[in-house]
Structures are given as C-alpha cells and as structure tokens.
Amino acid sequence: xxxxxxxxxxxxxxxxxxxxxxxxxxxxxxxxxxxxxxxxxxxxxxxxxxxxxxxxxxxxxxxxxxxxxxxxxxxxxxxxxxxxxxxxxxxxxxxxxxxxxxxxxxxxxxxxxxxxxxxxxxxxxxxxxxxxxxxxxxxxxxxxxxxxxxxxxxxxxxxxxxxxxxxxxxxxxxxxxxxxxxxxxxxxxxxxxxxxxxxxxxxxxxxxxxxxxxxxxxxxxxxxxxxxxxxxx
Length: 233
Prior knowledge:
Elements: H1 18-39, H2 47-53, H3 58-85, H4 91-104, H5 107-123, H6 127-137, H7 140-166, H8 174-186, H9 188-192, H10 194-218
Helix pairs in contact: 1-3, 1-10, 2-5, 3-4, 3-5, 3-7, 4-7, 5-6, 7-8, 8-10
C-alpha cells in the first residue's frame, strides 16, 4: 500500500484568511488615502484664515473630507486587525495599542468639523455664521477631544508596531520609524510653515505606508500555523 501524502501548498500565504488580506488592504489603502488627503489640503491657519481660503474650493474640500475620513477609519481598522493577530509575547501591548487606535479614530470629529467650516464658508458668506463657526471650532468639547485623539493617533500605531516587534514579527527599526513619522506630521506647521506643511505631511505619510506594508506582510499576511499534512497510510 502506498502512502498518500498531501503536498504542502506552494503559496506562502495559503493559510491566510481572506479577512486578514482585507485588513492588510485597509491598513495600506487607508494610509495612502490619508497621504492623498494631505496633498489636497488647503494651507493651515487659524479658523478665520481657513474660512477665507475655503471660498471657491468646495470640490477640493469634499475630496479632502472623503480621503481623510476613509483613510483614518480604514487605517485604524487595519491596525486593530494587526493587534488582534499578535499572540504570546506582545499581546498585552497590542491590546493597549488597539485601545489607543480607537481613541485616535476620534480625530474624525476634528476632520469633519474642519470640512463643515470650509463648506459652510464657501456657500454662505454670512458674518454671523462665520462667527458661529469660529466659536464652534474653539468649543471646550473640541479642545478636550482633539488632544486625546492626537495622542491615540500618534501612539496607537507605535504601540501596535512595538508589540509586533516584541513578538518577533517585524524589524527592530519599524516601530521607531512609525513613532517618528506620525508626530512629525502634526508639528509640520511649526517646523516649515503652513504653506508647505501639507506636502511634507504627505511625504511622511508615504514613508508610513512603506512601513505599514512591512507590518502587514509580517503579521496579517503570515500564517499563524502551517497547513496540516495527512500522514495516514
């Protein structure tokens, strides 16, 4: 009687669940969308300046909103999937990173408010509405939510990448590259001025995309266990 042995698959990701592939696409695609959103962002400034710049740029503001909201939610969903894929050493740190990523998703509140301010200013050039929108932008709720969300946005991806490093899945430089990239995006206005900060932010975001490709390949697109083989006679 001959032995019937099943051949191992020649595809290295044959045991990867389709949902994990989808999460990898969300992680990388979301980061790319954020880079695109930064490229079309109007130069920064105080609320009054943003209102002035919004005149005649309704289409640009709409594109920025779609890319920013989709990119943020997709990227954070991908990072949550990465944290869920980490087992053993680094699992607790991955859970902490996932919680921080959820807080980072609250940045969608600030993004949406900025878009609403711009759209309203572009369609209703009313001094009373202008003052209302400026006061809304300075509201205590936004003042509380935004710093917490920024901390989650910066440290959530870093903690997830650091957890993947502790699990032995990614190179030692990757979490530190993530940590350097995200805060630099946030302080770009102060380092090089608002006129060119959005371009520098887009470049930094593209570097982050490259790091996320490595992160996704080493975690989401790597099988947890090998495909079992049939050893029956």
